[in-house]
Amino acid sequence: MSVAKIGEHIFLIDVEAAGIRNFVASYIIKGESVVIIETGPTSSIQNLVNGLSELGIDPGDVSYVAVSHIHLDHGGGAGTLIKHLPKAKVLVHKRGVPHLANPEKLWQQSKMMLGTIAEIYGKPEPVPPERMVAAYDGMTLNIGEGIALKAVETLGHASHHLSYYESLSKGIFTGDAVGIYVNELDVIVPTTPPPFRMDIALSSLDKLASLKPLVLYYTHFGKALNGAEKIEKYTRQLKLWAETAKFALDAGEDLGAISQRIVENDNAVKKAEGYIRAHKVLRETVLKESVLGIIEFVKNFGDPA
Fold first, then answer.
1. How far apart are CA 172 and CA 284, in angstroms?
2. Domain boundary among 135, 169, 203
3. 278 lies in a domain?
4. I want to staple 139 with a disulfide (CB 3.0 to 4.6 A). Which of 22, 151, 256, 282 is the partner?
């Protein structure tokens, strides 16, 4: 666990999910009250709690825990975390509310999709319904000291995905809407697992671009400058993946061949290939699940580019 101040009022806690550094970030916004953005998985909640203590934050001062979506590495730890925060409520997309209240289906599906990675993340605990707020597009939290946080519905990666725009820094907490940022290499890697809806994701990216952000705060991982430029790059990247998958499918290629073709065609992924293949989570989720998500979209809907 490590803590870093990344803005006048914003802190990053590396929760070291699955024991991996620079993989899952939880963000702390401190105004007159405190908001936590992203919990990480259940298995790393104690690291997050330790980070709050290091920042000198009284658990009773936390007003909201905002999650981008309910996947285990983003909101899976909400039920465990909320036990430490007596006044906080969990902010989640309305479609995510029933799954956080009763996470058994989420857990079973996660084990089926992720296998041993789900076990590493840990089983999610329920969030009491009265401790949740169903967030909607445009909903704004006034945190005090001139800080406001606006929910932005950004579907595509998931049907229950929110990003959060913070007006003072002109930054967006992106969840998985703008992919994964490998900060050591300054490259973006798509995260597009089934059932990925690329057409909807592209509309979400247009919505985020219209905010003209200066900064992106990636859950995976960290603060990235030139926010609007990175959104534009990611849009082109998704279109390249779909175009590559369409060509390869027409040629009768299988998942492995399509994955390798994407690596060769996408300079960012090629640059990060060694990093991805050495990463115990990304080697499964990027080169298999994300490629599969693009393939299934192209099969079902065609190439939106």
1. 27
2. 169
3. yes
4. 151
Q: Is the pLDDT of residue 1 over 90?
A: no
User: Could you read off the pLDDT of 220-248 as tens digits, one per residue?
Assistant: 999 999 999 999 999 999 999 999 999 99
Q: Answer for the pair 241, 192: CB distance below 8 angstroms, yes or no.
A: yes
CATH of the domain at 86: 3.60.15.10
39 close to 75: Cβ distance less than 8 angstroms: yes
- Summarised one tens digit per residue, pLDDT across range 132-155 is 999 999 999 999 999 999 999 999
On the question of pLDDT at 305 being above 70, the answer is no
Give Cβ neighbours of residue 18 (< 8 Å, ≥ 6 apart): 41, 43, 44, 117, 120, 121, 280, 281
Residue 148's beta-bridge partner residues?
142
Token code pair at residue 278:
């050495």
Domain carrying residue 34 = 2-169
3-state secondary structure at position 276: helix
pLDDT at position 75 = 97
pLDDT score at 167: 92
Tokens of 178: 């703008």
- Give yes or no: residues 159 and 266 share one domain: no
Q: What's the predicted TM-score (pTM) here?
A: 0.97
Q: How many CB atoms lie within 10 A of CB 88?
A: 22
Residue 208, helix vs strand vs coil: helix
On whether both 26 and 164 belong to a single domain, the answer is yes
Question: Of 169, 195, 226, which residue is a domain's last?
Answer: 169
